[in-house]
Amino acid sequence: MLIIAHRGSSHTCPENTKPAFNTALLQEADGIELDLQMTRDGIPVVYHDRTLQKVGHGRKKIHTLSYAELSRLDFGAWFNKAFSGEHIVSLDEVLRSFAGTTKLFLEVKNRGTSEHCTALSALAADRVLREKTVENIYFLSFQPQYLEVINKKSKTLKTVLNCNRVSSRTVQSIDCSRLQGINLPVQYLSAELVSFYHRKGKEVFVYGCNSRWAVYRAVRLGADGLMTDMPDKACTCVRNGYRDRP
Predict the structure, then answer these.
(1) Which CATH number fits domain 2-38+100-239: 3.40.710.10, 3.40.50.1110, 3.20.20.190, 3.10.560.10?
(2) In 3D, which of 239, 207, 245 has the Cα closest to residue 223?
(3) Whole-model pTM over 0.70
């Protein structure tokens, strides 16, 4: 069971920032999930939302700004003044700092035009292929067409399809021949679904594991990894052997 920090330790630090990633590792997470978008001038950066409103910079969008413009903005103070001055993190920074240290789950977001996101997928794949630890890096997306772009780059790249609000029957109908696995909300997980994908040699991940109930469910039903905003609590729950089961 992998415990994967969703956007880093995002309950203790501003999400998708270096402090969130570093804290997740200190909390003994096995991997870090983060979100990729691309700037106007073609730099892959780490950010989730469609606009910068959450971090206090209005309705501006990542794909309409240059990397230089984004680098001048504060991405930490919105969460807590103690994080003032945190800058947006580029994919290159993530790979330099963490690729040899932990597993990385890179989610390609559907932001901007299809052409823009296709270019992001190809560029991110090229960046990752330079790494010696490529086997520890996964690409995720809700859009299978972007994973297909990545799959075409190299058979060594691992791709995982994100699923949202689907039944077990629907998930089992997915063509997973070129996928490493799937990632779905923990409430849709079932032993039958895990068994189905494991027989195909695929991995099953779940997200939204922010309670003891969710962590226990993921482990009990045999998921290969869970994604949580609270890696410290999930790790404690697992280490305690679920003595305080929900």
Answers:
(1) 3.20.20.190
(2) 207
(3) yes
